[in-house]
Amino acid sequence: TMAHSKALLVLENFIGGKFVPCSSYINSYNPSTGDVYCRVPDSGKEEVEAAVKAAKDAFPIWSSKSPLERSQILNKLADLIERDLEVFAQAESKDQGKTITFARTVDIPRAVYNFRFFASSILHHTTECTEMATMGCVHYTSRAPVGVAGLISPWNLPLYLLTWKIAPAIACGNTVVAKPSEMTSVTAWMMCKLLEKAGVPHGVVNVVFGTGAKAGEALVCHPDVPLISFTGSTLTAQRITEKSAPHCKRLSLELGGKNPAIVFDDADLTQCIPTTLRSSFANQGEICLCTSRIFVQRGIYSEFLKRFVAEAKKWKVGNPSDPTVDVGALISKEHLEKVRSYVKKAQAEGARVLCGEGVDSLALPTGNQKGYFMLPTVIAEVKDESCCMQEEIFGPVTCVVAFDTEEEVIERANGVKYGLAATVWSSSVGRVHRVAQRLQSGLVWTNCWLVRDLNLPFGGMKASGIGREGAKDSYEFFTEVKTITIKH
Ligand code: NAD
């Protein structure tokens, strides 16, 4: 009804510096209540065409600005998002289901930092030069922005991951068309409202909202978008690779993981247990870097399991806007069903569910009865070849298994198609180096998790991705290099 739809938040595309309504819309749900609360443009070819045109038109002016001018604008945008941090955090929590605490302390601060970081790093890149004295020549490299960058981001860390792409793309002088996840579009739309005030010229950042199949694919197939930076699932990445192949596009693909934690018997469990709980259940387990296979050395296996399960049971699940809540809602009803189905499959295969789904009862506040909640779930005695140990579950579910030797655990940890992140827990310096060298993983954390220096490469091996992003890597991805030879 009209009265009902009036109460909904209605988003608009942001094209050429203006908010533009769309001819059709899709519903967006509040995961913690199950209610439709927002209408998201269902953009397609036409909207993407307009956005790419605006981005192309803005390119000559934006790309000719000095890095310092662009840096100042990025810093201003960071200040404005930071000024509105609380409003952004509340919006992200409502839209995504994540806890307000996580949005306040991780998502939005990191979005702010992404702009500050690339505002700074863009000022410090150098190019290469070599001399060829016998030929009387010097060679040097020069880098220039590529053009219109297509940026496609997922729903788990909405503004955090979108700005991780927008910031380096525009810092390098590209203009962009971004397509956030249709399930979490609100904070991107809010950010658009700040662009003009920050001094971002019209058309430099365009955002089209909509589904992957329609809006995303139109962007991937657009001939005037030479570069796509994508974060999402491996399946979608395969489709994007196929669709972009006729245009030979440059792709950066940040994909899924099936990340192991390896706990040796000399690990400091007072640090390992709380960190591994976080690495398993933070953001409802909906982080590509989350641990979902915990290998524990036989001698400490039962002690680890006992302490880990006891602590997991203390995680409070409930209304995400309650600051004392540790686990919010999962993104959608479908996703919740999918995550639950993994627990059922594990049980059917004879694994033991030690806490959580199907074992403990979940009491929810009255307003959240229809939300997509699930208890942190720990599964033991799962076979390595089980789908729970092979496939990305992307929810608050983690498997704990025992191992005997270093050699054995390296092989088992590497025995999946993914290779994004691993954690190694041991107090032996030699061992952590040895194991880290041999893990097939783009990132290895020893005795910690999620400690990031944005200067260094981020990305996955095997089915976890192609390419790396970070200060230097993003600069290289978002620029085209040329070698120039001068004879004197
Ligand atoms: P997804 O692949 O379903 O969607 C990601 C984005 O791609 C969305 O914006 C979606 O609309 C769009 N999309 C879908 N189909 C498309 C198509 N055919 N063409 C163009 N765009 C299309 O992923 P998701 O479910 O939103 O996110 C969860 C996944 O993302 C998990 O696999 C997770 O591991 C991964 N992820 C990886 C990283 C990383 O940095 N490696 C970070 C976060 C999430």
TrEMBL record:
Residues of the signal sequence?
A: none
GO BP terms: namely: retinoic acid metabolic process
**GO cellular component, as recorded:** cytoplasm
Gene Ontology MF annotations: aminomuconate-semialdehyde dehydrogenase activity; retinal dehydrogenase (NAD+) activity
Pathway(s) of this molecule:
Amino-acid degradation; L-kynurenine degradation
Report the top EC class in one word: oxidoreductase
Q: Which superkingdom, per the lineage?
A: Eukaryota
Question: Which EC numbers does the record give?
Answer: 1.2.1.32
Write down a Pfam family by its short name: Aldedh
UniProt subcellular location: Cytoplasm
Residues annotated as catalytic: 254
Residues of the Aldehyde dehydrogenase domain: 24-484
Alphabetical list of CDD domains matching this protein: ALDH_F8_HMSADH
What reaction does this catalyse? 2-aminomuconate 6-semialdehyde + NAD(+) + H2O = (2Z,4E)-2-aminomuconate + NADH + 2 H(+)
Keyword tags: Cytoplasm, NAD, Oxidoreductase
The UniProt family comment states: Belongs to the aldehyde dehydrogenase family.
Q: What does this protein do?
A: Catalyzes the NAD-dependent oxidation of 2-aminomuconic semialdehyde of the kynurenine metabolic pathway in L-tryptophan degradation.
The record's listing under PANTHER family reads: 2-AMINOMUCONIC SEMIALDEHYDE DEHYDROGENASE (PTHR43720:SF2)
Instruction: Indicate what this protein is called per its UniProt record.
Output: 2-aminomuconic semialdehyde dehydrogenase
Taxonomic lineage of the native organism: Eukaryota, Metazoa, Chordata, Craniata, Vertebrata
Gene designation: Aldh8a1
